[in-house]
Amino acid sequence: MASTAPKPGTPKRDTKEELVNATIKLASRGGMEAASVRSITREAGVTEGALYRHYRSKEQLWVEVYTRIVGAMAEDKAVLLDADLPARECLGEWIRLTYAYYDGNRDAFNYVLLAPRSLSESLGEVYERQGRLFVELFTRLAARGEVREMDPKLALAVFGGIVLAVPRLVNEGGLEPPASGYTEEITDAVWRAIGN
Amino acid sequence: MASTAPKPGTPKRDTKEELVNATIKLASRGGMEAASVRSITREAGVTEGALYRHYRSKEQLWVEVYTRIVGAMAEDKAVLLDADLPARECLGEWIRLTYAYYDGNRDAFNYVLLAPRSLSESLGEVYERQGRLFVELFTRLAARGEVREMDPKLALAVFGGIVLAVPRLVNEGGLEPPASGYTEEITDAVWRAIGN
Amino acid sequence: MASTAPKPGTPKRDTKEELVNATIKLASRGGMEAASVRSITREAGVTEGALYRHYRSKEQLWVEVYTRIVGAMAEDKAVLLDADLPARECLGEWIRLTYAYYDGNRDAFNYVLLAPRSLSESLGEVYERQGRLFVELFTRLAARGEVREMDPKLALAVFGGIVLAVPRLVNEGGLEPPASGYTEEITDAVWRAIGN
Amino acid sequence: MASTAPKPGTPKRDTKEELVNATIKLASRGGMEAASVRSITREAGVTEGALYRHYRSKEQLWVEVYTRIVGAMAEDKAVLLDADLPARECLGEWIRLTYAYYDGNRDAFNYVLLAPRSLSESLGEVYERQGRLFVELFTRLAARGEVREMDPKLALAVFGGIVLAVPRLVNEGGLEPPASGYTEEITDAVWRAIGN
DNA sequence: CATGAATGAGCATTCATTCAT
DNA sequence: AATGAATGAATGCTCATTCAT
Description:
4 copies of one chain form a homotetramer. Chain A is an all-alpha fold.
């Protein structure tokens, strides 16, 4: 008779997981407004108290949500960073990678990008960490003379602006959906703007 | 019988005006959270009831706020559209104009960017109208062969992305402040991305 | 057809009154724990929001409650202060007066006396004002040599301690109820402790 | 097989002890509000479940806390009761003793004073037991004609009132700190009030 | 036109207590 | 004995909106 129940000392990781998933799900569907503590916990199938066992505050839950998304993406990007591909190709991969994570978590990203004012410092750090990775990439490529000579942070803004604005317009502004993959055209635009 | 009340023929547009100004003022200072119905009406010097006499809802007040800002900007841009300047110069002016309105109304814009989902159709229309103006510009320039051949809506996304992302990063991402005006460098980037 | 409804501009003082009364009533019955915002407003026949129209916080409501009770008592005591009665008689009246207000508001008093740590500054002020009145009385009597030479604040503590402890013991410690009026015996004890 | 666990014969009274100590420690530092079940158990180094293995409820833990404090004090006072000192001296010692326990456990005492209504009967008994001891003392002294003829319970109220009110005023009412010990002046006042 | 008191559902958070392990 | 995740009702408070005057 093998027991399917978790052992006493074994922390059930399910709840944290459920909470994070519920948060992303709700935010993706109905924007941040839909992601109240009540609705998150209902969606996760637990009570409000359970959230506060695992996270100090709603904000800390968001920190975890964002940290996970960005953290996973950052790992993949770090690999790319060391792959020493030609600049244009590298940028293309970078964008493809960004969209891979962006697509499933659109609203989590938007929340962070559009309302950082209200976010805690620890979330700000995760946010910056994401930016530093691009700056690192750009700086390396610049050292090899493969991209334009410009403030890497400005390059980051240009890159981030283009990459984030396009899906928004696709969604809400009437732009046609990606079809064969907008990525190519977006990479073109980014490359022209910051490439060599 | 000297009357201190406004003359019958004199339309008292004051209340609506005060409400709109109060909204922009509060949102610009303290973000969207500071612009509650209560604080808006207090700032405007009227009561909550008065707001609802003039606007169906808080949302409708925001529609008006946004319509006015974008409307005024659109007028200026329409002039530019007909001025037949060389493409690059025209784009530079266009950006300068955008920032002129954006700077004074950052939070009104951000609100729209952050939560368009919850805004009524009329706001969506205003939002699109702004985009159509750029599309019109781009199409004209394309007809003269002065910009790249690309989907004008994609150009809009690229343009909008760069233009909106840079001030954000300047503000919150640790980028150096505009100095004599980042506008030049932004225009460069935009031009490379979508110019000819 | 005389209208019984309040005029537009006329503030209905009822709600504030109801709130104050409900607070005293609940605190007197079930102690401070029974006086939650929810129960206070239910008892007053209004919703929670209504409380916050009239008071910035629950604490501010308590400030009003206490201010009213102490304020009314202080007025009566001020009269006594100027009546120039012989010390012992004056003290007796003072105690009688204290009980007159104390009896109807026992828990409001107890709350303030036993948990001042959590009270706002403005409540602290009201609290002190009550004490200053006694100190003033004691100082005057001392100047006439009718009471003992001692720190008036210590006298206040002795006076307050005796006066407040007796009803507590009557209520909860098994002391027999006042019968013909404990006041006489209490006045005796107080007089011996601080009189001349 | 060296065992690190306590020997079978050794009773592990640790948990109850830790719980009681943690409660007193927290209440003395941060008032009753700081003594939540969570913080008590964390301070004691156990979990919430452990508390409920040893006490039916939080209230029962407080009963134990209070019983211990008062019990220890009662033992000391019982010795004093049999020492047959002259009345005034005896009262002085009694007060000194009271403060010795009161000072280290101010908040435990205040809790009882503030909210006895909600405490179980067993706590009420402990509370009364404390009073009975004084009544016993007073009755003996009265039999020897060394104190006033008055209801011993009234004497208890007078005694208790003075003794409890003075430290409060010292702490919060702006009275000067005890210096070499207010005890002398307090004993004076008590003696005048109830002594012979 | 304007007032402003009242609504009532909503918010994030805390707490003593329970119970499967 | 002890664990600690989960409960669920309660807390003080905010907000856009309504309506009798």
